[in-house]
Amino acid sequence: SQTVYPFGGNAKSDDPRAKDKTIVGGKGANLAEMAEIGLPVPPGFTITTEECLDYLEHGADPSTELRAGFAEKLRHDVTSALGHIEATVGKRLGDKDDPLLVSVRSGAAISMPGMMDTVLNLGLNDETVEGLAQVSGDERFAWDSYRRFIQMYSDVVLGIDHGLFEEALEIAKEDKDLYADTEMSAEEWKELVAEYKQIAADERGGEPFPQDVTEQLWGAIRAVFDSWDSERAKIYRRLNDIPHDMGTAVNVQAMVFGNMGDTSATGVAFTRDPATGEKSYYGEFLINAQGEDVVAGIRTPQYLTKAAREAAGADKPSMEEAMPEAYAELARVFDLLEQHYRDMQDIEFTVERGHLWMLQTRTGKRTAKAALKLAVDMADEGLIDEKTAILRVDPMALDQLLHPTLDPDAPRDVLTTGLPASPGAAAGKIVLDADTAEQWAGRGESVILVRVETSPEDIHGMHAATGILTARGGMTSHAAVVARGMGRPCVSGASAVVIDRAKRLLKIGSRDLKEGDLITLDGAKGQVMAGEVATIEPELAGDFGTLMEWADKHRRMRVRTNAETPNDCRMARQFGAEGIGLCRTEHMFFDAGRISAVREMILADDENGRRAALDKLLPEQRKDFHEIFEVMKGLSCTIRLLDPPLHEFLPHGDAEFEDLAATTGHSVEHLKRRAGELHEFNPMLGHRGCRLGITYPEIYEMQARAIFEAACDVKAASGEAPLPEVMIPLVVTRRELEILRALVERVAGDVFGEKGTVVDYLVGTMIELPRAALMAGEIAEEARFFSFGTNDLTQTTLGVSRDDASRFLGPYVDRGIFARDPFVSLDIDGVGQLVTMAAERGRATRGDIKLGICGEHGGDPASIRFCEETGLDYVSASPYRVPIARLAAAQASL
Ligand code: ADP
Ligand code: MG
Ligand code: MG
C-alpha cells in the first residue's frame, strides 16, 4: 500500500485510504477532500501514520545518520511526491533562482495539541532567499520569510529555545525604535537573519544552520514523527483516552504567502458563530502576516465581516471591506464547505496577493448553546436530518443549559472561591442551619444554606435552599453529591468561610456577614459573591424544546425521575419526566416536626409504642403522597418503602434525648439504652430495607396506607389517579417479597373498601443485591416490576462503599484499573452482567415484567445506552438529568 498520498493539482485517488483519517490524519484527509471538491488548496502530499509507526519502531535512533531511520521505499516515494508539488507549482525545492518553499505539518487522526508545531518556509537558505527576493520582487518579504524559517526550524527541529530568537528581535526593534514587525525593512531583516544564524550555530556547538534543503526536509519529517512520542503528546493522549499506537501523519505542502504586503493576509474562521450558533461568518485575519500570527497576539487581528467590526466598534477595516474580492471568495468557500461536510467548520486560510488559499478545515468546536442551535438550524435548512441533529448534541452538554446562569454583564463582588461542586447560579439569604432554611423558604424567601459540611439530616434544608455553600468537603462530599442530584448549585470546600453558629455570624476572608445577608453562588465557577448578582433563566422552549421533541419521537425507553418533593416533581415534569422512577420515602422522615415521631417509633419498646408513633406520622405521609400524586396523576410512581439503616434516625447528643424524653415520657437513660441496643457495626448491611418491613410490619403498613389513601383521594378529587408502584427494597429471597406483597395487598384492600373506590397499582422490588439478581427468576413470581438499584448493586458487587471510595477511586481511574468511576458510569462488564441476567430471568418468569433503572446511572449517557441494549422499559434520573436522559435514550435508539 502507498506510503505517501499526493493532494491538490491534478492529484486524484480512488484509494479510500487517501481520505481515511486513521491513515492520513485529519488534516491530510480534509486537505485532500477540499482539493477534490475544487477548493483552492496548495498542492502537497501526506505521509501516512503507518510510516510514522514504522519509523518509531525501527528508525527512531537519534544517533543514526539523518535519513538512515527512514525506509528505502519512503525515501523514494517522498522524492516522487515532491515532484508532484514541483510540477504543479512550477518551482523546485532548492532552486536558487525560483525556489519552491513548503510547510511541514503534523496531523494525527484526532486533533492533538502538544504535537509538533508546523515549520513554514522550508527550502530557504542563503542562496534561495536571494532568488525568492528576485522573483517576488519583494526583498522584505523574502528576508521576513527566512527569519521566520530559521526561528521555527531551530525551535521545532533543532530543539533550540525560541526565546533566544524572540529576544534578538525585540532588541533589534528597540534599537531602531520600531513597534511592529511589519515596520522592519528588508535590510533590518537581513541583519537579523545573520544574528539568527549565529544563535543557531552557537547553540549547536559551532555547526551552522542547515543549508541543504533536502536535509531540512527530512529533518522536519523526522521531528514530526518524533513528536508523536514526546512527553507532552503522551500526557495529552493519556488525559484524553487516545490510544498510543495511532501515529501521526506528515503533511508537506507548497507555501502560499500571507506576508507579501497589503494584498496578502492570513486568517482563521468558523462558518458560523461557535459561541452562539448564529448563522454568521465568524473569525479574524491579519494583513501582511503569516501562519499563526493571528492567534499569537503579536498584532490585534481584524474582523472578517463589516457587521462584526461595527458591532465591536473597531476602526481597522474588516476583510469584507479591505479585501472584498477575497472575502467574497471566502464566503463562497464557507457555503461549499458546509454543504459538503454538513456541519459547522473551523478553517485556516491565507490570501496571497489577493488570491484565497485554503489551508485547513475541520469540524468546529462549539458551546452547548451553539451545538443546540446548529443542530436545529441545520435540520431546518435541510442540511441534515432530524436523526443526525439528535446525534449532534452531547447530552451531558445540556447540563450547562438547564440551570439559571449569572448574567455575564452583571458586576461581581467575589468574596471567595471554593470548588465548583454543582453547576448553576443561586442568590439568596444566608442561613446557617437546615431548619431555618426550611422556615425561611416556607415564607417564600430564597435562601443559601451555609454549613461547615452537610449530613443526611440537612436534606430538608438543602431542598429548601436555592444554593448550598460548605466550608469543607470536596467534589464528592455529601453536599456536592446531594446538590448535584437535586440540581441545586453548590460551592463546596470554601475554606475561607468561618461560621459562628451561636452568634449567627460568618466571616468570609476578611468580610463579616450575618445570617440573612444576601450572597450569590456561581456553582460552575465555585465563586461566592456578596449581594445578589442578576441571573438569566434557562430557555426551555426554542431550540431546546425542538430538539427534545425530536428526541422524544425517536426514543423507545421512557424517562422518569427520582424525586420526593412536589417541587422536584413539578420541575421534573417541566423537563419532560413521564413518571417517578424512585421516590425515597425516608427523606420524608427527616423533615422537621416529624423526626421526633420517627425517633419515638424507633425507640419504642413494643408494637403498641410503635403504632402510637406511626399514627402521628400517617397523616404527614399521606399529605406528602397526596401532593406528589397531584403533580403526577395519570403517571407511574415508584415509591420505595422505608430503606435506610435505623441509626440514621437516632437522636444525637443529650439535647435531642432530653427533647425525646419530654415527648415520650420515657427517661433519658431508658432511651439511651434502647438506642444502644439498636447499635449496628455495619449498618449498610444491617437492619434496613425489607428486613425492617419483616420485623416491624407496622411501618410498611403505615406507608402503604398513606400511599393508597392519597391515591384514592387524588382520584376522587380530580377523577384521575396515579399508578403507584410500591417497591420493596433490599430483597434477596422470593419469600421476603411474598410476605410483604401480601401485606401491601391487604392494606390496599382495606383502604379501597373504606374509600369505596380502587386504583390500579403494582408491587415489585428493587434489584440491588447480587443474590437478588441471581434469584431474579424466582423473585419475579412475586414481583410485577424490577427496578435496578444500581448504586447499591455496584457497592455490593464491587465490595466498594461509595462513601469511602474517594481515596482510591481517583488513582484507580488514573491507572486504568477502572475505565470510569463505577458510581458515575455503570460497570457494564461486571454489574451489567447481573442486570442483563436478572432482566432475562425476570422476563422468563413473567413476560410482561416492567424493568427500569433508578440508580444515578439512569442519568449517564453510556449507562443509558446499555439500558437500551438490555431492553429496559425506562430509565429514571434526577430532575435536572431528565432532558439528558431523554436525549441519550433517543441517541441509544438510533
Ligand atoms: P496546527 O495544527 O497547529 O493548526 P498547521 O499545520 O495548521 O498547525 O499550521 C499552522 C498555520 O501555518 C496554518 O494555520 C497556516 O496559517 C500556516 N500554514 C501551514 N501550511 C501553510 C502553507 N502551505 N502555506 C501557508 N501557510 C501555511
Ligand atoms: Mg497550532
Ligand atoms: Mg491548523
TrEMBL record:
Question: Sorted alphabetically, which keywords does the UniProt record give?
Answer: ATP-binding, Kinase, Magnesium, Metal-binding, Nucleotide-binding, Transferase
Task: Report the residue ranges that make up the Pyruvate phosphate dikinase AMP/ATP-binding domain in this protein.
Answer: 23-379
Region of interest: Disordered:
1-19
Q: Which residues bind substrate?
A: R584, R640, E768, G789, T790, N791, D792
Q: Where is the active site?
A: H478, C854
Broad enzyme group: transferase
- This protein's name: Pyruvate, phosphate dikinase
Which taxonomic lineage is given here?
Bacteria, Pseudomonadati, Pseudomonadota, Alphaproteobacteria, Sphingomonadales
